[in-house]
């Protein structure tokens, strides 16, 4: 195994640990500071195809999600 391969593996392991920590943080966050942006896709020839949703972002933990209407 080359030195570059060793370093890559070490960095990938550290990255996986940090990503796991971030996922746990986002899961435990109460999402009290949420920025909501209303969106729509309207004007379709069939009104039944119109869609409305809210894009949400927690300003504390950075989680993004969509709420459909």
Could you characterize the architecture of this molecule?
Strands 1-2-3 form a three-stranded antiparallel sheet, with no helix packed on it. The protein has two domains: 30 residues; 39 residues, no CATH class. The radius of gyration is 20 Å and the shape is elongated. By secondary structure, the chain is an alpha+beta fold. The longest helix has 26 residues. Helices cover 38% and strands 30% of the residues.
- Total E-strand runs: 3
- Biggest sheet, strands in spatial order? 1-2-3
* Amino- and carboxy-terminal Cα gap: 53 Å
Helix-and-strand structural type = alpha+beta
Please summarize the sheet with the most strands. 3 strands, antiparallel
| DSSP strand content | 25-35%
Poorly predicted regions: none
């Amino acid at each position: 195994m080359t030195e570059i391969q060793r370093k890559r593996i070490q960095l990938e392991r550290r990255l996986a640990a940090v990503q796991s920590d971030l996922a746990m943080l986002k899961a435990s966050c109460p999402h009290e500071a949420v920025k909501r942006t209303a969106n729509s896709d309207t004007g379709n020839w069939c009104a039944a195809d119109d869609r409305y949703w809210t894009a949400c972002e927690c300003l504390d933990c950075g989680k993004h999600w969509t709420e459909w209407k």
